[in-house]
Amino acid sequence: MNRTNGGGGPTGVNLPALRSHNAALVLDLLRSAGPDGISRLELAERTRLTPQAVSKITARLREEGFAAEAGHRASTGGKPRTVLRLVPEAGHAVGVHLDRDELRAVLADLDGTVVGERRVPLDLGAGAEAVLDAVVREAGTLGRGAGTSLLGVGVALPGPLDHIHGVLHRVTGFPEWDGFPLRDALAARLGLPVVVDKDTNAAALGLAVAGERGSFAYLHLGTGLGAGLVLGGTVHRGARTGAGEFGHQVIQLDGPPCPCGNRGCVEVLCLAAMERGDVGEAARVLGESAANLAGLLDIDLVLLGGRTITAAPEPFVHGVADVLAARARREGAHEGPVPVRLATGGARGVAEGAAQLLLAPVFGWGVG
Amino acid sequence: MNRTNGGGGPTGVNLPALRSHNAALVLDLLRSAGPDGISRLELAERTRLTPQAVSKITARLREEGFAAEAGHRASTGGKPRTVLRLVPEAGHAVGVHLDRDELRAVLADLDGTVVGERRVPLDLGAGAEAVLDAVVREAGTLGRGAGTSLLGVGVALPGPLDHIHGVLHRVTGFPEWDGFPLRDALAARLGLPVVVDKDTNAAALGLAVAGERGSFAYLHLGTGLGAGLVLGGTVHRGARTGAGEFGHQVIQLDGPPCPCGNRGCVEVLCLAAMERGDVGEAARVLGESAANLAGLLDIDLVLLGGRTITAAPEPFVHGVADVLAARARREGAHEGPVPVRLATGGARGVAEGAAQLLLAPVFGWGVG
DNA sequence: GCACTTTGGCAACAGCGTTGCGAAAGTGGA
DNA sequence: TCCACTTTCGCAACGCTGTTGCCAAAGTGC
């Protein structure tokens, strides 16, 4: 019931839409309850629906194979509550992470658990045919393990792109991909639904689904510097799905030139500091830009990831946290500073998040 | 049906919720159609509900006095469509703009049309009692003109505050307001619902309701520099309703000190340039920070307002647009640069937006 | 004047969550 | 061992939603 559905403005809600919304909501609560499960009455409390409505919804979900009973809780003086859990095998998705020099693909179940993985070297600049062949081969191999429960394939890769239409804009450093309709090309060859997104957005989605609540920014420092934003539990992609251009935020007017053409971008300052071996300065620069972002959007959390960060996490986490703490102290914040943490997921986080591009909609994420 | 309702996570939807959502949606389309009105079949297309459902909804709205028939369209070969319109007098709200030296209050009807206005000098530092007295007096006077159709009073003022609880944090320059529960104090004395928000958020809401579609940033340059963000048609207030801290974005590492304690904030750079009489440099600095924001969030539009800007709009609009155009060109954007315009509404925009804090929820804005 | 098109209300309907109620399945005291 | 009590949860009836089938109303155009 939000105001941003589809392209034609907010839309009306009829009974089938209401039904699928509530079913997805219950399914999401089953998922986030994990292996411990959750009782019908708890579901009723959380959804603010009546227990009887929850009973009907869970009965349908059990009939369709998405949920199952899983034991009982201890009695509190009456009939003990029946515990329900998600059936993870009811759905799978393949997540593909296309990096500059490597293809990493995972097969994940509804729970997000990785049940299959493949890694092969890859040259993103080797041309569309070669890359498409590799994706079709690896995704196909993994997907066969899921049978008919395979929902589709999610692909995450660097650089600006059109998430809605699945068309690449500029994969930084590989101009030959400019304008390539990756989603449709892959969907035609795989015969499956395909969703394409930026690597940073996929990683952020994966973190949100994995349990990071509220609003946060995932900052990725590797070959370049980018961000994935989650605002109110939803990945913010912006009007033309180009949000997250964090690296080319100018924080030093008339500073050193950046390959992008601007002067004083965070990315060039941060990477230059790294080349000098000055990790402290790189972290400070990153912290200042993170503080700009945090003040502008009032987020709950900053998560750091990417090869450069995972190589030496502590100085970055502390350096960024110090800047945020100093700003919060100076501005007399009523609440503590925004916490900074290392992103979980590691090197496989982007591929797992890519799988979530297909899995998350099952739980009502990002579909209204 | 979004995932950010209330405090306890996303909630289920039952039939009453579905009904009020669809009714609000139809009411919103009636409002945005303006005096020309809109036909039932057009409403059905826009809402994606069936014509019969729209007929039932509009019949209820007419019964309740919110909608009325207003003539017919020309025939296209069959029975001509009946045109429906909003009845603006069915609801009113008072909007109060508390500025440092002035109180401005308006009475607006459902259409947003101002049907009453009052302006009195005010010293925000004169103490809570004096300010509350003034608000109660002016809002009461205006509100009596609306009778029982008065929905409540919206109050907009500068400085960080807690929008959800209606408690002020720090009204910049007036520490005596720190922690003051403005909403509850006013609601008790007025006997009406009261909503409190930052002046920039109110102005942004007013612009969104007035017809600015999609996502945009409203940048306000007056005594200070702040922003109101509208993302996907909704005012973005952030986790602790503190979003929009645009003025203390650092764009010059180790730059000149700002009263806030940081160095190189846009606000201090921009205001210093204005004091030197260098409007061009002020506009360039504003433009760089606006470009940072536009790249990060991928917004559709930048709107400029505030006393300093309305005093000399052209150099600012052009200066900011130039920076955005230069960045878009250098980054090889596939679409044109983000347009920059002067915000409509002028000096009364904040007060009108404050009234919309009560009116907009009638049309389903920001309530899920 | 008649055939046709288009609008929009009436009535019956399927399906949603809700309410009323009772069976099932425990606890705990006599 | 029995019985009163508590708590869970499904069945059945219900109210209300949007949907479908149908037809009267109100125009156009030959």
UniProtKB/TrEMBL annotation, chains A, B:
<dbReference type="InterPro" id="IPR036388">
    <property type="entry name" value="WH-like_DNA-bd_sf"/>
</dbReference>
<dbReference type="InterPro" id="IPR036390">
    <property type="entry name" value="WH_DNA-bd_sf"/>
</dbReference>
<comment type="similarity">
    <text>Belongs to the ROK (NagC/XylR) family.</text>
</comment>
<dbReference type="Pfam" id="PF00480">
    <property type="entry name" value="ROK"/>
</dbReference>
<dbReference type="InterPro" id="IPR000600">
    <property type="entry name" value="ROK"/>
</dbReference>
<protein>
    <submittedName>
        <fullName>Transcriptional regulator</fullName>
    </submittedName>
</protein>
<dbReference type="InterPro" id="IPR049874">
    <property type="entry name" value="ROK_cs"/>
</dbReference>
<dbReference type="InterPro" id="IPR043129">
    <property type="entry name" value="ATPase_NBD"/>
</dbReference>
